[in-house]
Amino acid sequence: QTDDDISDRLHYYYTTTFLLLTAVLVSLKMFGGRPIECWLPAEYKSNWEDYTEMYCWARSTYFVPIENELPEVEDRVKSMVSYYQWVPFFFVLVAAMFYAPCLFWRLVYRTSGVRLKCIMSFVNDKSNLQPAIRRSNIQGLAAHLSSIFRHRFTCTSTTQSICQKFLNFRFYEAFLTYLYIFVKCLFLINVVFQMFLLNKFLQTDAYGIYGYGVIADLLSGHAWTESTNFPVVTYCDLQIRVLGNVQRHTIQCVLVINIFTEKIFILLWIWYTVLAVTTICSIFTWILASLPLEQRKKFIVRRLELADVNFKRHLYEAELDEFVRKYIKMDGIFVLRMMSIHSGALVCTEVVDIMWEQYMAEIGQRETKYNGQMLYPEHYVDPHTTKLDELRLSVSPSPTKRIEEENLTVKQALLRKTSVLVPLVSREEVNEETN
C-alpha cells in the first residue's frame, strides 16, 4: 500500500508471502504425498508398507548416526525427531510475526487524523491527467495538508499541560515520524530474533553460526554438515501385537521432506541477513532525513528550487525556517516524503510550492496591518514579535528590496514559475483550446 517504503514491503509483503506459499507446498508434500520412505524386511507383505510408513510418520522417528550402534530402547526417546511435522505451522507463525509490525503501524497511525492512504489515492487519481482537475486537486490537497499540519501541537511551555500532551500525543507534531521509525525498529528486532531462532533450530557442532558456516562450505567447495534437527536417514520402532505378544521391529526410513525443509531454512537464513542489513540502512536513512532541522529544510528547498527557477534560499532564510518549524512541522515532512516515494518528486514539488505560496500570503496578511505600504517596516518592531519574526526582519530583506535585487518586472515575476509536470491532454482538448 501507499503508507510504507520498499524496506517495509520486504518484511510484511514479500517475506510473508514466501512463508505462506512455502507452508502450503510443504503441507501438500506432507499430507498429500509421501513425506517418508521406509525400508522393510523381506517377510513384510506389500500391503504393510503404507501402514508402516504412516505409523512411523505419526509416531515420530529417532536419529542415530549410521556409524553408531542403536541405543537402548528406553534411551531412544531422547533422540526422537518430530520437528518436521510442525514446519508448516512454524512458517505460518513466523509469517504472522513479520506482518504484526505493519498491522500495528496501520492501526495506530490512523488515530492521528492523517489518512496517508486517502492522501496518496487522491494524488494518484487518474483524473489528474486533465490540467484543470489536476490544478484544482493539487490546490485542495495543499490546503488540506496545511490545515492538518497547523493543528499539530509542538513541545512548548505554552501549548498544553503535560497530562494533556500525553493524552493527545497522537496529535504531536512528530507522532507519525517517531511511530514510523519505531515500527521499523520492530521489523529489525523481529528479523534478528528469527535469525537467532533459526541458528538454534539448525545448529550443529560443526558450525558456530549455521547459515554462515553453510555459505562458507559452499564457497570453498565442501559439502555442508547436515543438521541433526532435520536428518534424512532415521529409525522407527514398530510395535506389532501378534497372538497377544508385542513384537518390536526396528525399521530404517528416509525423510524425504527434510531434504527440502533444510534447504528452505538455509535460504531463509540468507534472506533474513539481507533483510537485517536493509532495515538498518533504512532506519538510519529516515532518522538522518527526518530529525535534523537542516535536512528537513534541504528537502523543502530542493522542492522549491525545482518549482521556482529563481528561488534563492538566502533571500528567504527566516521564512524558510519558520515554514519548516511552525507551518509544516516534522510530520509534514514525513507525509511529503511518502508522497515523493509513491507519487513522484514532481507531484510533491507542486504541493510544496502551493503550500509555500499560501504561507507567504499569510505572512503578508499578518504584517501589512503594521504599515499599509511596506510589509517589513524597518522602523517598527512589534512587542509581541517572536524571535523567529525578529530573525526574518533582520536577515531577510523586504519584498520590495527582494524584487529590486532580482530585478524582476511584474511580468517576469508571473513567468518565473516553471511547469514541473505537463499533464496528458487529449487531441480533442487541444483542438478546443486552439479554436
UniProtKB/TrEMBL annotation:
UniProt xrefs under InterPro entries: Innexin
Family to which the UniProt record says this protein belongs: Belongs to the pannexin family.
Keyword Transmembrane helix tagged: yes
Protein name: Innexin
Species classification: Eukaryota, Metazoa, Ecdysozoa, Nematoda, Chromadorea
Membrane topology note: Multi-pass membrane protein
Localization annotation: Cell junction, Gap junction; Cell membrane
Entry keywords, A to Z: Cell junction, Cell membrane, Gap junction, Ion channel, Ion transport, Membrane, Transmembrane, Transmembrane helix, Transport
Transmembrane region(s): 12-31, 86-108, 175-197, 269-293
Main localization (coarse): other
GO molecular function, one term: gap junction channel activity
Any Pfam family matching the protein: Innexin
PROSITE patterns (UniProt xref): PANNEXIN
Protein role: Structural component of the gap junctions.
One cellular-component annotation, GO: plasma membrane
Keyword Transport annotated: yes
Gene Ontology biological-process entries: monoatomic ion transmembrane transport
